[in-house]
Design goal:
Number of strands: 24
Number of helices: 11
Distance between the termini: 31 Å
Helix content: 25-40%
Oligomer: single chain
Shape: globular
Strand content: 25-35%
Bound molecules: alpha-L-arabinofuranose
Largest sheet: 10 strands, mixed
């Protein structure tokens, strides 16, 4: 058996975790809204048409913020069509996903749903086919108390109190040629600066996210970040990152090494942010919003076919990746990477939440949890506190595309009030278990509370409504001796080790 040693010293604090890194995303795409969170007439739907079975699984995840309404969808979204009396709303063509948008669910419905899900809204404005004025109108509708055209419009829709939406995305993936109204970096730099300036005049308490590159391999990355921040630095609070990974080559060893790419991506983006800060002689440090991240590859071929060859239809099955056990490991690795950057990443959104590349799926017969639900659940429940540097001494293994990578990857979070330390660890060595020695002496006397493990003999195992093949197992035996824990990290496993005073 291989050996791994992790040393965690209380003195080496990285940063407090901003709970918003456990955010998610609902786009008007496929069955995320219609047939996902909203399905009037379904036996599990409440009086507002929200599926209770879905709400229950969402609440369990304790998602603090949900990005809405897109995604690519937002770049040709006419928000006025989605508010007001239902009988006056008209269907529209959604050009992003070649779908019929009935507009029976809009901003007001989403705000109601968010309240029931106990989450905040992260709203995106359309900077594709619209611009400064429209973003201002929407913000006035949402956040201004009363006495103006759009605040009174909201009140006439029965919503007395403003929504007080704090977090706003200045468009979505504006560098991508697939985006309606995509922009050059100079164009986006200008429009985002002007929109940000105007929006903060309406409500100075809001926070704004500037669009970074759509993914790391965009030809304009990282020049896009440098030029756009060069224009809008003063008005924005976060820069966005988006990245999806997948096992297209069916090479799991190399697939699980892709979290190292994510690490490098974050480093590069931070370097650009700090370069712009220095160039501007600014006192402000730019933080990051990793507002789209996940595994996405299983459904790519089908999706291309539907968006090209199908007639206009409402809520088609789109991007319905069925996740495997190895995908859950990859999601775990990505969560660890996000946590270890708690000093600069303040927001992150698992894209997405229901039915569309999602941890939660619905069928007529009920809602169920995909494999990736579990690492996200664990991180959201036990990853709140302060990240402490976990010094990891582990062996490496060879990969086809990433050279030699470390066997064990981990993050440690200390919740001071409860005096609980949680270590999230993935053993991404597929053939060797690890004998783990964890030295936590600096925390005083800690006891092993529990160890949650996700492990399977079948890397391709999937869950379904009928059968949950991949779910965590609990182990209470965590022997500690003089502040040192000894346990085993199984080959190919996600581990949550919880220590405390109890
Ligand atoms: O999350 C699915 C899509 O991925 C989003 O609409 C878009 O922003 C990204 O390309």
């Amino acid at each position: 058996m291989r050996k791994t040693k992790i040393t965690i010293d209380k003195a080496y604090r990285v940063a407090p975790v901003d709970k918003r890194i456990f955010g998610s995303f609902i786009e008007h795409l496929g069955r995320a809204v219609y047939g996902g969170i909203y399905e009037p007439g379904h036996p599990a739907a409440d009086k507002d048409g929200f599926r209770q079975d879905v709400l229950e699984l969402v609440r369990k995840l304790r998602v603090p913020v949900v990005r809405y309404p897109g995604g690519n969808f937002v770049s040709n979204f006419f928000w006025e069509d989605s508010v007001g009396p239902l009988k006056e709303r008209q269907p529209r063509l959604d050009l992003a996903w070649r779908t019929l948008e009935p507009n029976t669910f809009g901003l007001g419905e989403f705000a109601k749903w968010a309240k029931k899900a106990d989450t905040e809204i992260m709203m995106a404005v359309n900077l594709g086919t619209r611009g400064v004025a429209d973003a201002c109108n929407l913000l006035e509708y949402c956040n201004h108390p009363s006495g103006t055209k759009y605040s009174e419009l909201r009140r006439s829709h029965g919503v007395e109190e403003p929504y007080h939406i704090k977090l706003w995305c200045l468009g979505n993936e504006m560098d991508g040629d697939w985006q309606l109204g995509s922009k050059t970096m100079e164009e986006y730099g200008r429009i985002s600066a002007e929109t940000g300036k105007a929006m903060k005049l309406i409500d100075p308490s809001i926070e704004l996210v500037s669009c970074g590159s759509s993914f790391k391999d965009m030809p304009t990355f990282p020049q896009w970040e440098a030029v756009t921040l060069g224009e809008n630095y003063e008005y924005v609070d976060y820069l966005s990152l988006h990245q999806y990974y997948g096992n297209e080559k069916n090479d799991t060893v190399d697939y699980l090494a892709q979290s190292d790419d994510m690490e490098e991506f974050i480093h590069t983006v931070l370097s650009v942010c700090d370069y712009v800060k220095a160039k501007k002689r600014s006192k402000k440090t730019m933080h990051l919003s990793f507002d789209e991240w996940n595994v996405w590859f299983h459904s790519k071929a089908e999706e291309e076919d539907i968006t090209k060859n199908s007639p206009w239809q409402k809520a088609p099955h789109l991007l319905e990746d069925h996740y495997t056990f190895e995908d859950a490991l990859m999601v775990g690795l990505m969560l660890i990477t996000l946590l270890n950057h708690a000093d600069r990443i303040k927001i992150a959104c698992l894209a997405q939440l229901v039915n569309v590349i999602a941890p939660i799926m619905t069928e007529e017969g009920g809602a169920w949890c995909q494999t990736i639900y579990y690492p996200f659940l664990h991180a959201s429940l036990y990853g709140r506190g302060t990240v402490i540097k976990a010094v990891t001494d582990t062996k490496t293994h060879a990969t086809s595309g990433h050279g030699a990578v470390s066997d064990v990857v981990c993050a440690a979070v200390y919740e001071e009030e409860k005096e609980e330390l949680t270590v999230f660890a993935v053993n991404r060595n597929l053939s060797e278990d690890q004998e783990l020695t964890m030295d936590v002496r600096s925390f005083g006397e800690l006891k092993g509370m529990e160890k949650l493990v996700l492990v399977s003999d079948d890397l391709k195992a999937e869950n379904s409504l009928a059968e949950e093949k991949v779910k965590p197992v609990r182990d209470k035996e965590l022997p500690m001796d003089g502040g040192v824990l000894r346990t085993v990290l199984k080959k190919a496993s996600w581990n949550v080790i919880r220590l405390g005073r109890r």
